[in-house]
Amino acid sequence: MTSELSTFGFLCELNDETIYAIERGIIELKNTGDLKLGAWYDIWENEFEQRAIYENKRCEVWEHNGEVFAQVLAISPNHFFLDKDIRQKYKYAVWSPLLKFLDDGDNLFKDKIRGDDVVEIVVKYAPWKNGNFKIVELIEEAPFEGSSYCRLPPWTLEQMARKLPEALVPKLDSLCINQFKNIQPQDVHVGVCIKAEAWNPAFPQRVKPKDGANFKCSYLFTPTLGLVRWVIKDFKTTEPTASHLAVYNVKSDMIEIGKRTGKWVSFNLCEENKYRKSGGPISKPALIRATAVNVKEVSHVPRVTRVVGGEAEIEASFLFDQKMFESEENSLIKDWSLRRESLRTDTHFWDTDLGKVEVFAKISETIIETIETHRQSLEPQEAEKLQKEAIVVSVTAVVYNNFMKNFETYPKNGIFFAKEVDTICYLNGGRIIYQK
């Protein structure tokens, strides 16, 4: 097999052959020979083959009398925790992470299961307007352990995305805003190195920079701390000899300076000795008096990060809301030469790892125009169905050149901005609207 593995799934119908692929929904493939209903297949670009052995305890599949059945876990909404419009949108919905929305036409789930309870059920392949499977039997409530993957259904994600900006705006007593707050050195933080080498503001102005002096440092960023200086002082050295002085062995360092940008690390924030021992009121901002210590590269990177031309490019996303880009009145203007003049100049979104990410008008225009063009291309019935569906915009975020100046007024000004749009898709189902 030379072609790259695309996905896998199980056979649902024996027409031209319809395979339900876990990752990509229904896929129709031409009949190439003996196939078995309910059997699992590896699927490539133009071919597929049966898996000799496949056991997925989260999705047990079988065939009976020409119909395909599956045993999976499913969940329905707890309406008490949802906003009214989201509650109405997902009223009586039942969802499985593997099979998506399920048909509860016989009201088995609706009449017997509480919202947010995860239940083991049996479904059969029976395509309907919102999905491909119908509930035929309730088995039992699933134990909490092992069912966590079910607890991020579309309604929860949509509710979380809506409340995220409010939750992510830094509190007034956060160190990123109040730089004169006490520092807790025992706390462990995770951040990203946004610059490998930049001017060190703690370097004494009266001292002339020279080799061996730390007049430059690296910078980490976390949403709660803001900018953090990273100066590694504990370089390993070669042993001195009678004819040679000890020298720094940079390659023995944990991360070479040239490789720091884009690294996600854990660290403690610790004040330098002269500030810890002063005993008086705090007179210097945290950026000056503290540095990152115990810096270690994390094994699980929280975000897709690339380094291009020495610049960190980080994936970030947000839920599309037209009001963040322009007023309702402005959205009615058809002529973009007029419309773009009144796009908001303070457009931004809040990210769990990057804090405030600013969006320039050119990017705003691209996002709005792409979504509007997509909606205009839909058939009326489909357009009505998708009108209220949440849309996710994914961008490449980069660091401002004047990030240190911006930090002086953070969070009024952000450290990151959206460089380009990567993907626009529907939150529910992931249907692509635009992809770079």
From TrEMBL:
Q: Which residues form the DUF7039 domain?
A: 191-298
Residue ranges of domain DUF7038 in the record: 65-158
Q: Which domain of life is it from?
A: Eukaryota
Q: Name one Pfam family in it.
A: DUF7040
InterPro entries per UniProt? DUF7037 (IPR055465), DUF7038 (IPR055466), DUF7039 (IPR055467), DUF7040 (IPR055468)
Q: Which residues form the DUF7037 domain?
A: 6-45
Q: In this protein, which residues make up the domain named DUF7040?
A: 313-427
> Secretion signal: which residues?
none
This one is known as: Uncharacterized protein
Traced from the root, the source organism's taxonomic lineage reads:
Eukaryota, Metazoa, Ecdysozoa, Nematoda, Chromadorea
